[in-house]
Write a structure and sequence with these properties.
This protein has nine helices and four strands; from the N terminus they run αβαααβαβαααβα. It binds adenosine monophosphate. Adenosine monophosphate binds next to helix 2 and helix 3.
């Protein structure tokens, strides 16, 4: 978990390869669907471009489908999910039905000023449609209002790994590995 631009995607890929599990990014799934103009893509495009959240039922159905694929049987890493309390409960129940639970929840913290600059830089390099200044501001608000409070839930559950997300990609990665390795069951 982390605000837009905190480095979730980059660090998720590194963490997933450390543990040999697939990294599942709901944002990537949506972007792929938008690019190939599927029904789902057309349904979510305007929402994502406005910086809002895709409805819970749509997002949860996608995650359920993805987690049911064979490559997730030995574990998985979710990048950008859950983002709402509804999604948190959905995930807890989905995993419990299978006798599973989350091992660890990583929270990447970066100061908000640095985030906007990182996102504007990413916009220049990757050209993501939701990386313009208005949408960035809206995504920050939505994160603060809907997603940041979920950290309390995971803190209470004892699964939260707080990581300082400032500095180089490698520094953040090493701090994250050190934190998550303590929770590792492999
Ligand atoms: P991300 O790549 O994780 O920053 O996600 C890009 C956009 O996809 C977000 O700003 C949301 O519009 C949408 N999205 C991704 N994951 C979720 C989620 N778990 N719940 C609702 N919307 C999501």
């Amino acid at each position: 978990m982390g605000a837009p631009g905190a480095g979730k995607g980059t660090q998720a890929t590194a963490l997933a390869s450390r543990y040999g599990v697939p990294a599942i990014s709901t944002g990537d799934i949506f972007r792929t669907n938008i690019a190939s103009r599927t029904e789902l893509g057309l349904q979510v495009q305007a929402i994502i471009e406005a910086g809002e959240y895709v409805p819970d039922d749509v997002t949860e159905a996608i995650v359920a489908d993805r987690l049911a694929e064979p490559d997730c049987a030995g574990g998985f890493l979710l990048d950008g999910f859950p983002r709402t309390m509804h999604q948190v409960h959905f995930l807890d129940e989905y995993l419990a039905a299978d006798g599973k639970e989350l091992d660890a929840v990583v929270s990447l913290h970066v100061n908000p000023e640095a985030l906007v600059n990182r996102l504007l830089e990413r916009a220049r390099i990757e050209g993501r449609v939701d990386d313009n200044e208005d949408t960035i501001r809206r995504r920050m608000e939505v994160y603060a209002g809907q997603t940041a409070p979920l950290l309390f839930h995971y803190e209470r559950a004892g699964t939260l790994v707080d990581v300082d997300g400032s500095g180089s990609v490698e520094d953040v990665r090493d701090r994250m590995f050190a934190g998550v390795d303590r929770y590792s069951k492999v």
